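Notes, Module 5: Reading structure tokens.

Key idea: the token line is not a picture. It is a compressed description, and you learn to read it the same way you learned to read a sequence, by spotting repeated patterns. We will look at two proteins. The first is printed below with its tokens.
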Amino acid sequence: MNRSFLLVPCLFLAILPALLPAQTKPLQSDSTWHPVDQPTLEVRRTAGSIVIDGDLDDPGWRDAAVAKNFSETFPGDRTRPPVDIRVFVTYDDDNLYLAFRIFDDPASIRASLRDRDQIWQDDYAGIILDTYGDASWAYFIAANPLGVQGDTRISSSSGEDMSFDLVFESEGKITDRGYQVEMAVPFRSLRFPEQDVQNWRATFWITHPRQSLNTYSWAAINRDEQCWLCQNGFLRGIRGVRSGEKLELLPAFVASQSSRLRDAGDRNSGLAPFDLRSMRGELSLGLRYALTNSIFAEATLNPDFSQVESDATRIDVNTTFALFYPERRPFFQEGSNFYDTWISAVYTRTINDPLVATKLIGNAGANSFIYIGAWDEHSPVLLPFEERSAVVQDAGRSFSNIFRSRYDFGESSFVGLLVTDRRLTDGGSGSAFGADAMLLFLDNFRVKIQVMGSHTTEPDDSSMTASLGDMKFDGGAHTAAFDGESYYGLAYILGFERQSRTWNFDVTYRESGPTFRAANGFVTQNNRRQLSMSQSLTLYPEDSFFDVIRPGIDVGRVWNFDGVRKDEWIVPNLNLNLKGQTYVGGGYIFSNELFRNVQLRGIRRGWIYVNSNLFERFRFGFNYTAGRFVARSVQTPLLGSGKEFSFWTELKPTTQLIISAGVSYSDLYEPDGGNEIFSGYILRSRINYQFTRELFLRLVVQYNQFGRGLDIEPLLTYKLNPFSIFYIGVTSRYGDFGSFYKSSLRESPIILTQRQRQYFLKFQYLFQV
């Protein structure tokens, strides 16, 4: 690595102790305090009215149940928090009411006025609510000290779904004694059993970012237990309430106008520079119907599934595989944790431009399922091979069906079934089918397994795959070109792991046959057998500058189905959580690889990263990697010398203004100071000004030096709730920057030429019938 560059993180870490904020003074000792495992709260119906305004003086709070005696979960372990916390709970026929009162120094409270689900760097308070009481999944409903909302869905087996949205009401207020948050969660927004008396698992959760990212829970948490939801407390006594509205309607209107710069010949002939297309306006309708308290159907007709913000461009100049971009469309985001499996058989961005889409979701305690059906106008096809992947951008119209079911049992254990099928109307199809399971035993050990089969029938149109030439796969048994071939494939994964407070390991074997494909998934590589092992220790020093010390090592080896060794690696690494919410880590890779029949030995490179949330108004992070990389984009692969660097920062000059910016740089040179193979960077900035909780203005600017393109995207949004939204915006793309020449007198400015432009607006409103 470049030694001078390493001076930057070393200098920051050296002065970090002097920059730390004052530690919150611990509360005076109290002999009555002790961590409480699985506490119980008897909830009583409110005796008066409650107005959600951030004040807690309404008569309805007078007889509310009170939760106290919280314990710290991080960095302390079942210790007393340094702040006092009270949570009040009551209900009426329509809502579950929650009020949080946190006693703290108001000057130290972190709070931002920003869009919902952007509160996770602030102080916030919320409830983790398991309405079926079986520890398989739970709602997380939260708000920051200004009442800005955040919500997720937590699954014991597949993690946290950050895309989940819920309609509820909240207000917050910073006081001279801390802050308080008031919430009303409509029962119609929740799913729970159809019974007169509800018995729910729950804990109240407080995040308190100061010297560390402190977290506190009403139910004491044991770090050595893998099943986190199993340790929740209980809310009892809620009677006579009903879940869900029967019907929800979501009509929308979308209008847009696009233009494109004409060719030089057309411009020179006297035509206007831009080919301005006529304004387009379209109506769409979404509907959602509750079949039962736990099963609901959803459909959307002529949906506008365009994104209001482009994906952050990634450097792909030296990769031979398609890049993964996350799903941003709300229709597909909700429930996505159901079909997020170890083999990526479902990637909903393969449903590119649907005319109509339907969805059926069921959550009945331990049983859950999801079905998605869609008629797609323009269907991309991802083709995986041993050392590369290819994408057919538009294979025509298709109809997709995706079904996933899962049964959760015990603590963090489940069995599941997954079936996908896509039929192209012009010929060709792809199906994948299989099962998966995870079994937790002896508290800390888990076995995971997934087996998937596939059947592919190619379209009979080789013009779609002309770029692949006469390429073959599966030992020459099949051509890469679309020529109507049909074949089956198989993939599976088997793993054994241990997760605990201190010692963790994972041993996983995965295999993907040369003919395995996932038409609705994101499988970019096949003809691959891989055995990998990782091991780490997690240490929690007391009264130390370190919150967590985590050394580890990863090893692995890859073969193809002919038994040829393709890749192997050993990667020692170290990750540190420091005081000041600063995270530092690094590692070094020792690897050998066979690529395009060229044996590349001596792949060596190291990396270091730093991410810091030390200051409320300034956050930053960077990652630096340097060493020897495989040059994959040249005619004959070679081992070159290169580096990768990324830096990001976020500034908060005021509570309402957030400015973020980032740069990614990559280069690669022939060995021993040879010629440049490539170099370049991508710049991206985002400015967000929040006028109110509902109204905000956002500007995204991105420059890609590799593609010599500049994108500018302003957007004005009014968001009444997650589903009732109005926005208006512009996307502009600039390119053809002209020449940058020198003269004896001056240097010419870089010429920016606008190539594309689109104006758009959208209005949608949620009606609950």
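Here is the second protein, with the sequence above and the tokens below, as before.
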Amino acid sequence: MSDTKLPKTYDPQTVEAPWYDRWESSGAFSSDPDSAETPYTIMMPPPNVTGSLHMGHALTFTLQDLLIRFNRMRGRDTLWQPGQDHAGIATQMVVERQLADQGIDRRDMGRDAFLERMWEWKEESGGMIQRQMRRLGASPDWARNRFTLDDGLSRAVVKTFVQMHRDGLIYRDKRLVNWDPKLLTAISDLEVEQREQESSMWHLKYRLEGSEDEYISIATTRPETMLGDGAVAVHPDDERYKHLVGRMAILPLSNRPIPIIADEYPDPEKGSGAVKITPAHDFNDFEVGRRHNLPLINLMTSHAAMESIPEIPAKYQGLDRYEARKQILADMDAEGLLEHEERVQNSVPHGDRSGVVIEPWLMDQWYVNAAELAKPAIKAVEEGRTRFVPERWSKTYFEWMRNIQPWCISRQLWWGHRIPAWYGPDDHIFVEENEAAAVSAASAHYGKTVELRRDDDVLDTWFSSGLWPFSTLGWPDDTPEVHADLARYYPGDVLVTGFDIIFFWVARMMMMSMYVMDGEVPFRDVYIHALVRDEKGQKMSKSKGNVMDPLDIIDQYGADPLRFTLAAMAAQGRDIKMSTTRLESYRNFATKIWNACRFLEMNNCIASAKSIDLAAVSEPVNRWIVSEFNTAVARTTAAVEAYRFNEAADTIYGFIWNAYCDWYVELIKPQLDGEAGETRATAATVLEASLRLLHPFMPYLTEELNEKIFGSDDMMITAAWPDHVDLPASDAPAEISFLISLITDIRHIRSEMNVPLSAKPVLQMRGLSDLQARSIDVNKAALLRLARLDAFETVDSFGNGTARGSVDGVDIGLPLADILDLDAERVRLEKAITGVDDEISKIARKLDNPGFVAKAPAEVVEENRRRLDEENTRRVAIKAALARLG
């Protein structure tokens, strides 16, 4: 044996540190528009500029990088388009909090000064997630990095907005919005978090007009909105109220008469069956109000305080909505109009960022006719031009798109794309690409020059994100380079993203891209990955204290073990239960590969790497490992192409750890004491090719070993993906496979029967085929050594005291009467199975108890299910051992 260039211990921190700069400076990440190779495009979901890497990012960027590296090695011209999202609300909140700590309010600063501070923050802090992605090993084309507020993307936003307005797809309307009274902006339905909570429902009495003692009872959880009631509604088929339809009720406290109307909306089985209709403060009531032409009374200010308007008695004006609620209930009670209070479970809308209760609020906003835009986007998925993987997510997409509501795109913020609309003296709106065009249009409209006022609002962040697949390629700039890039890299091959933004982003990209790009879809595949949860299956959250920071994991285990863990656990349709046990396991896998390389180097195999035509090997064990390698290449390739990343990782793991390290290396060890030129060359060549197979999963480790062990001047990142070896047909692979199965079963028998390592029984066999007999004869030394046998023989029958098994149709036996006390062993096993049966019954009783399953924490129930599976597995093993005794 010779010395090795590798340190004895695999240290991921030392291995990984230098490689990223070498990759990037080599130009390996760059796409090549002039290449003759077929392009492969992934549009990176742009992380928020405020963001830092979390486990969801680590998963999605690992899978995207895996696909990019895989296709790069297969000769494709890869473009992984990077960028960051300006994240309107999130980013503005960060800077506003910083200013608040200094006692500064943005409104005191003014818009221009505040935006200057925003850009300063972006330049100072906005690149953190890029640096973190580099630690993970992500290899996008950084030279093409884009930002949703950069000049080019801003031109795309303005041009799209103006064209959509001219086509009637963007319009201004007075509708209810989800108003956040803390952030002072409208937010979309998707930014509203419905929280289940226990609330009070108050039953109130409204007196009927013309009567002093007749009332109609209504129930509400929001009595502060009653002052804006426009009607009381009852179901037209509710016999209790048919005689009241058309009469008037007197609204308490303000003494305003309101009609009693019939509408399908009230549920006769819920509450009293009569409901108050407040069109300006409830989305359902708004639609009822439109059907019946009811007045829209906006009760509140932007801070959710009661307005100073005639419909609100003076004593409530200026009160916070909850203070108003208390006062109104007290006054209703004093007048005998509060019947009773009950506790109910209901969903209350909260802003997902501010955490405050959202107020439905009537105001003028800009909207997109999403229903019209959705039609071609729905058809594209129906026709298979874009497909979802797993396919079941297409049902989610269809359900949302077929029921899509008008999309409110205006936000009352300063950080974002300012809406390109100007108002004349009479509030006539001019939508143009710039102020000069608006002035010109206004002059033509009024017949003179007038002063214009620009809209203060900015666009919803998802408007610019919806243009990402083509705006990042330079649209709408009219240059040969942009036309070439769009023709080459649009549409993308796949979008990799989590299911939580199918509505936020995927649907909007489908709609907006198909509108702008003449009906062409933005991507052919949409791969939806699952969530990363903790090892108990719970969602990670700071409040639970179960958040796993990927940067901490990289520091402790390395980027490669983290990447491989995420890929190996990314089964389609199943959430990832992240655990340190799996991370340790795959770090051990990296160590196994490291040690295999050291072993080859110490046994003088490395110099022979790539010096042999693997198709020409003649030794049976070499033919077998080449055959196993072919299978691994085919299965890994097919799995990655089908987005079955876990199957790809399992295949590579199984081949390198089991086939190569555990079996091939053990089988060839005796040969390495001699010349064994073919075996040395095969061992090195197959391992070098295996590193290429592994590279998209563990890029750092494979680069290090490729250079340090195999002495390559070329980097693995641009190496060729392994090819199938055209191995001539022979029985050799089958012979070695039988040998391995035989040794494996003998080891199982020894383990189950507690045969001491020092004992060397005789192997008895019955029913060998010619191939199997030849395999044993050729490999008898390996069989005796690896199965720890004294000898082997063929028999017609097995005697008493023989532990038996079956391998590929061959009956085998190990006579153990002279090695073990078989009667005592039988007693031990029977006692063990009794203990296992008792434990199985105990756990099963718990799980069969509905009370336990309903009340116990989810992780406790899951732990009991896991233990039940383990005990059942033990039972099967013990029964098998008993069966071997005959």
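Summary for the second protein:
- The first helix runs from residue 12 to 16.
- DSSP finds 30 helices and 29 strands in the chain.
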